[in-house]
Design a protein that fits this description.
The protein is built from 14 helices and 18 strands. The protein is of the alpha/beta class and about 400 residues long. The strands form 4 sheets. The protein has a 7-stranded mixed beta sheet with strand order 5-4-13-14-15-12-16, with helices on both faces. Strands 7-2-1-11-18-17 form a 6-stranded mixed beta sheet, with helices on both faces. The chain has a 3-stranded antiparallel beta sheet with strand order 8-9-10. Helix 1 runs parallel beside helix 10 and helix 10 runs antiparallel to helix 11. It starts with 7 loop residues before the first strand and ends in an 11-residue tail after the last helix.
Length: about 400
């Protein structure tokens, strides 16, 4: 009988990458603790995509049937000009490079709930807490939690998003790894004045984009406003009022639904603001600490692949850790397996930006002409990038 103690792993973050990683680590026999700074599982949020290789990852988790039940099935994306006049209607797959009938689109809160359900009885979950300090040494990682507890783990994995606190503790400030893609954006919900259902509507002028997105229907719709800006608005990051003022001022005076959207963002209770950016790191691990998902390789929403990379990365990282006792070798194999796949999917952000947020009048004219031609898929490399990795097989998978 094997009486060796289980290796202990602390996972920081309980959104997408964290629970997926915890599921696989538990399945491979690790003792897993997940810490999440929020007081409870976060519900709501806009729909996110699971494409290509990531669909196989969730199939191996056993949650694919539930995810198919939650799939929203958006039927069309419409584009309108500055005055709201129709330009073209497309299937979503024409923009994403996705595969109809195979890929999934799930409201973020429902995906989080399904992943949480797969681990809640099997791993230790610490809500309303976070890592305060890390001390990595030969015998493990000493962790002090914000709540005051102190514990030692064999390994620590940061799965806490693009602005990862774990990455900051282990690798230093975000700036060397943060690649700004030239756009800022705001998201919120608002009344569904247009009666949209299972569809999205996109408005553009050069350097500015507005989207209304109704994945199912109902009286509320997801609203997004993004705009070109040479430098990130750092002075607004810690001031929600300044963020609202910046977005409202940027979109003042435009037609279509823009006045209603600007008015709605002023009063929205779920307003969020950020810049469109990616994370590029020369290594995803240091010592006993590693990163997964957006914390290591955020591709930006222009790529549409953030959650898919998180799910695939979690599967591969757990499998490599289970393959042998040497964490350094496992981290090396994890990076070697995923690096080119990540880079291909990060590169999709360029095509996504050109399709959704043209920068100049010439770019907008070319995009609109492409929309009017029903034959080509606009995101011509998306499908290949989504499925470029053949998911490895591991003993417990």
């Amino acid at each position: 009988m094997n009486t060796a103690p289980k290796r202990t792993i602390l996972v920081s973050g309980a959104s997408i990458a964290g629970p997926a990683l915890a599921y696989w680590l538990h399945r491979y026999g690790f003792a897993v603790t997940v810490v999440e700074k929020a007081a409870a599982l976060r519900g709501g949020g806009y729909p996110i995509d699971i494409r290509g290789t990531a669909v196989e990852a969730v199939r191996r988790m056993g949650v694919l049937p539930r995810l198919r039940d939650a799939h929203v099935g958006v039927r069309r994306i419409s584009f309108v000009d500055a005055e709201g006049r129709p330009i073209a209607d497309l299937r979503p797959e024409a923009l994403s490079g996705g595969e109809e009938g195979h890929d999934l689109e799930i409201p973020r809160g429902e995906l989080a709930e399904i992943l949480y359900g797969a681990i809640r009885d099997d791993v230790e979950l610490l809500f309303n807490d976070s890592i305060a300090t890390l001390h990595d040494h030969d015998g493990g990682v000493d962790v002090t939690f914000r709540g005051g507890a102190r514990r030692t783990f064999d390994l620590v994995i940061g799965a806490d998003g693009i602005h990862s606190h774990t990455r900051g503790l282990a690798f230093g400030p975000e700036e060397p790894y943060h690649r700004y893609l030239g756009h800022s954006f705001a998201g919120f919900t608002m009344p569904n004045h247009l009666g949209l259902a299972h569809e999205g509507r996109t408005w553009n002028v050069p350097g500015r984009t507005a989207v209304l997105y109704a994945p199912r229907g109902g009286d509320r719709v997801h609203a997004f406003l993004s705009f070109l800006r040479p430098d990130p608005p750092l002075d607004a990051f810690r001031d929600p009022a300044a963020q609202r003022d910046l977005v409202a001022g940027t979109f003042a005076g435009y037609a279509w639904e823009i006045p209603r959207m600007v008015a709605a963002l002023r009063d929205s209770g779920d307003f969020f603001f950020d810049v469109v950016s990616q994370i590029h790191m020369p290594r995803w691990s240091t010592g006993r600490v590693a990163l997964v998902g957006d914390a290591a390789y955020a591709p930006s929403f222009f790529s549409g692949q953030g959650s898919s990379l998180a799910l695939v990365g979690a599967y591969v990282l757990a499998g490599e850790l289970a393959a042998g006792p040497d964490h350094a070798d496992a981290y090396e194999r994890y990076e070697r397996t995923l690096r080119s796949f990540v880079e291909m999917n990060q590169a999709l952000a360029t095509e996504g930006s050109a399709s959704l947020s043209p920068r100049t009048p010439e770019d907008l004219a070319r995009r609109n002409q492409a929309l009017r031609d029903p034959s080509p898929v606009l995101n011509s490399t998306g499908r290949h990038a989504h499925s470029a990795l053949a998911l490895p097989g591991y003993d417990a998978a």
